[in-house]
Amino acid sequence: MTSNIPPRPDEVADSSDLAITWLGHASVLVELDGKRLLTDPVLRNRIGPLRRIVPAVRPHDVGPVDCVLLSHLHADHADVPTLRDLVCSGPIVAPFGARSWLTGKGLADVRELQPGQDVSVGSITVLAAPARHSLTRGPLGPKAEPVGYVIQGSSSVYFAGDTDLFAAMAELRGSIDVALLPVSGWGPRVPAGHMDPERAAAACALIAPAAAIPIHWGTLALCRPARRPANPERPARKFAALVNRYAPAVEVRVLLPGERISLRAGS
Question: Among 14, 42, 51, 256, whose CB has the most other CB atoms within 10 angstroms?
Fold first, then answer.
């Protein structure tokens, strides 16, 4: 896999376009209507017992962002050193229960959202959506209710965060231009509270976005044994094949970590 550095803000030609850069795992840079929003940033080479098996992207390479969206507080989604190194001019948006833990780590301007609540980032509205996932960061860690996010501007982007399949995803049907859906993880199996390619394809059929991008695959692995998957792209390719079978109207775009695509807003 190769990694491309996403363009800096002054290199983006048309702010009315939607651009998506998958940085690996659940870290996605969404550029929409002149704003840059970054989801679940984890940009280091090692996080606890996990190591990155694709080239890292440094916060400096990403450049300044207008907002950070945290879906939950698990270490592979809320990495404090990465958050401290980012240049963020706006809020860190996090689920209810996360503020005190994040501010205790020295992070400022943390806005908590529960499902159904929203916050504005310029002309962009960020709406918290339900998710089905474990609340606690470790046995003694903080508890925060996991969420997904709908980023609404001239286009709409659904970032599912970490979640299992649930029926209420159908409430998003017809309202989403691009869905960022997790399709795997970092271990030999995908436990409850997550989606594998089959469940992610079923979610895609419920939501019916114009396009879907599989995330949360092929980025992290356990240090010991440090085994890189023989075919790290398999979950994403399987997801694409299943969506083609069960939701053929949805366009699937499989990105490699660091890869960026531009889409005309509202298309």
Answer: 42
